[in-house]
Design brief:
Blueprint lengths: L1 E5 L6 E3 L1 H16 L4 E6 L7 E6 L5 E4 L10 H11 L5 E4 L27
Parallel strand pairs: 3-6
Antiparallel strand pairs: 1-2, 1-5, 3-4
Amino acid sequence: MGQLYYGNATTSVDVPDRLLAHLKVVVATKLRRNESLMMSWTGGSEPAGRSSIWLQPAIPLRFVFDTADMEVLNPQTVRDMANAATSSAGLIVDLDQEIPAAPQREIRPVTASTPRLKVPA
């Protein structure tokens, strides 16, 4: 279970590592573009209901992961979260939600019948 620290608060929001990895990519992308967003969440150890924070580049944000291993991100989940982050409702996250594993990519060997890119001499 990872932690998300917002601002100068010493308390954190507990977020599963897999979900936190996806959140980190989406939020970092928005903030790097100097875009602000509203993020809300339900579930987890918070009392019943929903909590929300306003994220903007000037407010410190820290992602702390429980494990050093990098998560393999699910591209569709990242796209869905990014689309939600740009909506007027903002990014709404269920902390108890399971994120599906990334689909396996088909790896095909390069063969003689595969067209080659021609590079001008």
